[in-house]
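We emphasize that the prediction below concerns an isolated chain of 290 residues; any contacts that depend on oligomerization or on bound cofactors are therefore not represented. The input was used exactly as deposited, without trimming of termini.
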Amino acid sequence: MDTKPLYDELVSYLRSRSIPDAAFDVRCMCEQVTGRRLEQLMTEGIPTEDENPLRNMAQRRAFGEPLQYILGEWEFYGMRMFVGRGVLIPRPDTETLVDLVLREYKGSHSLRIADLCTGSGCIALALQKHLPDANVTGIELSGEAISYARRNVGEHGLPVTLVQADVLDPGTAAGFSELDVLVSNPPYLTDEEMQHLQKEIRSEPETALAGGRDGLDFYRRITALWKHALRPSGRIAYETGEQQGADVSRILAENGLTEIRVVKDLAGHDRVVTGILPAQTFQETQPVTD
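Result of the prediction step, given as a token string:
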């Protein structure tokens, strides 16, 4: 059939259900189902067999399912990531964290990097792609999430090691040492924020979102546990909520890290907090011998 009548029908339907960016969503659906650009479809038409799948996708979107889950994939740092229910959707804000690490360690060799709460593996994979000599490990507790991470690792053929484990378990942290970089996009929404989530975000796993009463539980516990896994001058770099830069900076300082910085995202919001474990702090933790 002609593309424009169906396209207009689906856009109008989504707008009637108060779906933001309805035209963009319909474009993405049309292009994925047909494998052709919308501009091409407007000239050539949409195959009849694709009409019902598109209407079904639009219905799922109208009921609040995230577009990324409907498509089954999303782009992060120029890489296709498979996603679905049970895994956090990669977001552009998180690219700020990758940018920081690549900027600080461009040209470095044999880095040891751990990505805690790796989810889909998007951070770990982006770092591995652009730091090919690095040893990157992604750690994730959720079986659903790590299944997507494994699929993404296989899709991109990169040597990221995945470990299914609880990053808040002291035994997990004890299994790592001499890390150059520890990165994490942990759950950081407050209890109050969890009560007022948009419908689409409620579809994502609560365990990947909820950070406790003040949203800082994971920052406190990860920093206290994992600083001992860093080498002298090793770095911690966290994604944070836009109101959490000062609080996460304080947590790093209380744990002995220095050179603490808050990095803003493209929208000008606080997005990443990073700090260095100084060599003297590391040395002071070592047993004194005669």
